[in-house]
């Protein structure tokens, strides 16, 4: 389940509400909630159902580190580590376990990281709106600074420490720790604020929090690139939402568990 408002009223159990996520975010849910956010258990076992939208069968991840701050030595180390993480995870068992969500003509398999760019031509600033992230992607692709998209493209946008991402009525580190979405012209992307706050560290080292939330959004973007049009559960959200902040070690990395319809569990 994705995030809940922190000052939440007692849940009112009713059949109608059971399928309406109680959240201030625009539907459908596709965020990583804060660690420890209130979670209302679903009345029934979660089950993702396929809504006939696109899937990213062999995802092509391009990482974008936005702002000059990523050139600072300590941040540049994170750039290197996150690119190594994607090189590892895209051909790992984490992707293999998504194969149960393959559909006819769309077999989910390993992906690749096609490149990375530290973008210094513009700055995200201390507060950056989701709309500005979308606009940056669209204009940098149009200008040829970022590679053109294809049906498998997924741009992972990392914000530097001190840059807060704002959505309508919500912000990173106070309401969420990351999300993925699609622009109106189907540029698939994930927005990853730097997890330098208690709610987004989740008791983990910053790099582990970042690989955990990145794995959450990666798996969701593959199985539900246009939120709510791929594999989705009306009561519980996407594959990673159901298992938010349940982590495991995969090789040297911390990744999040993901929901398996087959296992009826977070795996
Ligand atoms: Zn999610």
Distance between the termini: 16 Å
Range of strand content: 15-25%
Strand order of the largest sheet: 1-9-10-6-3-4
Class computed from helices, strands and strand pairing: alpha/beta
What hetero molecules are in the model? zinc ion
Helix content: 10-25%
Most strands sheet: 6 strands, mixed
Q: Unreliable stretches, pLDDT < 50, 5 or more residues? A: 1-24
What is the 3D shape? Answer: globular
- Kindly provide the radius of gyration, computed on alpha-carbon positions and rounded to a whole number of angstroms: 17 Å
Number of helices: 6
Mean pLDDT reading: 89
Number of strands: 15
Helix-strand sequence:
HEEEHHEEHEEEEEHHEEEEE
Question: Short summary of the structure?
Answer:
This protein is of the alpha/beta class and 267 residues long. 22% of the residues lie in helices and 23% in strands. It is globular and about 45 Å long.
Question: How would you describe this protein?
Answer:
The protein has 267 residues and is of the alpha/beta class. The chain contains six helices and 15 strands. Strands 1-9-10-6-3-4 form a six-stranded mixed β-sheet, with helices on both faces. It has a three-stranded mixed β-sheet with strand order 5-7-8. Strand 9 and strand 10 form a beta hairpin. 44% of the residues are buried.
């Amino acid at each position: 389940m994705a995030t809940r408002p922190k000052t939440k009223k007692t849940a009112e159990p009713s059949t109608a509400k059971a399928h309406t996520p109680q959240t201030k975010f625009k539907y459908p849910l596709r965020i990583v909630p804060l660690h420890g956010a209130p979670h209302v258990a679903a009345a029934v076992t979660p089950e993702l159902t396929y809504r006939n939208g696109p899937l990213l069968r062999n995802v092509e991840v391009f990482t974008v580190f936005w702002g000059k701050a990523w050139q600072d030595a300590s941040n540049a180390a994170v750039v290197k580590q996150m690119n190594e993480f994607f090189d590892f995870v895209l051909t790992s068992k984490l992707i293999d376990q998504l194969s149960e969500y393959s559909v006819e003509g769309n077999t989910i398999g390993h992906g690749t990281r096609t490149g990375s760019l530290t973008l210094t031509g513009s700055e995200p600033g201390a507060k950056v709106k989701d709309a500005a992230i979308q606009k940056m992607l669209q204009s940098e692709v149009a200008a040829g600074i970022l590679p053109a998209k294809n049906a498998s493209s997924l741009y992972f946008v990392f914000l530097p420490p001190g840059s807060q991402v704002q959505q309508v009525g919500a912000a990173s580190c106070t309401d969420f720790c990351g999300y993925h979405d699609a622009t109106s012209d189907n540029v698939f992307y994930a927005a990853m604020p730097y997890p330098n706050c208690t709610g987004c560290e989740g008791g983990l080292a910053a790099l582990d929090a970042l690989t955990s939330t990145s794995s959450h959004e990666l798996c969701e973007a593959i199985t539900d690139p246009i939120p709510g049009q791929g594999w989705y559960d009306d009561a519980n959200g996407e594959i990673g939402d159901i298992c938010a902040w349940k982590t495991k070690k995969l090789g040297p990395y911390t990744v999040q568990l993901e929901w398996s319809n087959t296992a009826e569990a977070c795996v």
